[in-house]
Amino acid sequence: MERSAPAPLRAPAPGIGMVGYAFMGAAHSQGWRTAGRVFDLPARPVLAAVCGRDRDAVRAMADRHGWAATETDWRDLIARDDVQVVDICTPGDSHAEIAIAALAAGKHVLCEKPLANTVEEARAMVEAARQAAGRGQVAMVGFNYRRVPALTYARTLVAEGRLGVLRHIRAAYRQDWLVDPAAPMTWRLRRDRAGSGALGDLGAHLVDLAQYLAGEELTGVSALTETFVRRRPDPDTGARSAEVTVDDAALFTGRLASGALASFEATRMAAGRKNSLRIELNGEKGSLAFDLERLNELAFHDHTEPAHTAGFRRILVTEPGHPYLKAWWPPGHALGYEHTFVHQARDLLEAIATGVPVSPSFAEGLQVQRVLAAVAESAEKNAAYTPVSP
Ligand SMILES: NC(=O)c1ccc[n+]([C@@H]2O[C@H](COP(=O)([O-])OP(=O)(O)OC[C@H]3O[C@@H](n4cnc5c(N)ncnc54)[C@H](O)[C@@H]3O)[C@@H](O)[C@H]2O)c1
């Protein structure tokens, strides 16, 4: 652990205003609450107000998670003088409208992934962020898996050249909550609300991670998608069944700018897989492998070592020299999923106070959106190779 007495604060405390208060709302609340207690932040955030459309439910959430005030319209949240950072934890159909309004109102923005439901929306968000950057505002996308210390460290190893020329990325994100055909409709199964299905929900994380770890972009894809269960019971309307308008699974291959080849699998139909995210990179000089179910570990094979002793070794990424770890527990005292949101809050607040460029930026979120659009287009053309449009 780093210290007992906190370092002096260097900036005024930013007030956070969060829209959406369910799954990500709870995870982000933990991040905002904890970041200033663990890390020496330039300024400790204040949980100023949380917004949801159900007055009683949002009040109950605010009490549980320590938010000072509540709002029932996100426009009122943005207008508050005590809110400097707007944190968007709503489904994708509202990301663009809220983010653009918040940036126009002079607020910093953290927006959950995927950045938007379409490339056009994402483009408008990038333009709003570009104009806001000129006024010193920050806009970041919530690709939180970049902030698993093992994956942040994997990026360091790749950037240091420990893998040499990259040949392959192999990425899979598998869940099983749609295996049961009686599992009900949710906003995640409606194209107008979610943009796409497993592709935008899970595949977006894989695409972002692949590009982040490799330090280069995907230039084209070839894809298959499928909706295995096309109608599901609809608890909202009471209808016996409603149409599922997104994919249950997306499989695609891709080419990176360097010529490396990548494969991706995103599915909510993999029985027994709850939140299984695995990614492996193979280069001329070595390989790295990561499994979210063992997120404190990174497997590294150094191919420059003599063959008779070389092999994958397990790096326990809990040393004070590893990313983010100096502020946490002694080596071996592991971290988990929720810590990624603490790291996300910490990095955003650092960027606001210091002006260091924020990553993943809205522009990086747009690049992911372009890849998702190319995947959807390729799948419509029965896996025809489809360039990622600039
Ligand atoms: N980073 C991750 O690991 C991760 C994980 C899950 C979801 N997400 C993303 O987070 C976002 C939210 O997903 P979730 O799982 O929290 O969904 P959720 O259904 O659990 O919560 C959505 C919340 O948004 C609120 N909401 C919807 N429309 C609103 C509006 N117009 N005004 C105010 N509130 C509104 C709902 O009431 C609810 O509180 C999505 O973009 C999703 O893709 C990211």
UniProtKB/TrEMBL annotation:
Residues 16-135 form the Gfo/Idh/MocA-like oxidoreductase N-terminal domain. Pfam families: GFO_IDH_MocA, GFO_IDH_MocA_C3. SUPFAM superfamilies: Glyceraldehyde-3-phosphate dehydrogenase-like, C-terminal domain, NAD(P)-binding Rossmann-fold domains. Coiled coil: none annotated. Residues 153-288 form the GFO/IDH/MocA-like oxidoreductase domain. InterPro entries: Gfo/Idh/MocA-like_OxRdtase_N, Gfo/Idh/MocA_oxidrdct_glycsds, GFO_IDH_MocA-like_dom, NAD(P)-bd_dom_sf. The keyword Oxidoreductase applies. Keywords: Oxidoreductase. The keyword Phosphoprotein does not apply. This is Gfo/Idh/MocA family protein. It comes from Streptomyces cremeus.
